[in-house]
Amino acid sequence: xxxxxxxxxxxxxxxxxxxxxxxxxxxxxxxxxxxxxxxxxxxxxxxxxxxxxxxxxxxxxxxxxxxxxxxxxxxxxxxxxxxxxxxxxxxxxxxxxxxxxxxxxxxxxxxxxxxxxxxxxxxxxxxxxx
Length: 130
Hints:
mainly alpha, 3 helices, 3% strand
């Protein structure tokens, strides 16, 4: 990012919508895959040690699909939040870089405060142990 960069809220909202649609489509596809796996797992005519081992392995894939769905749902929620926050007018690079510098400065100050209070807490804890 440089001074010539800019933030266009309309573009951001459109990108969020596209990402949401892609993630929802992934979840639908993963749901179909899960249905097919579960159909295989619950098929009683497939019997024997090899099939039982394969079915157990497929259950592991179902767990991965569930984790992927949860991750996608979290991303969808984040994109929806970002979309809500992307309101207002275009913002130029000068403003963004200035705000970034301010945020980094504030982060440094807060980090120093954290360290200060962490040291105080450790001193208090060591005094209580004695």
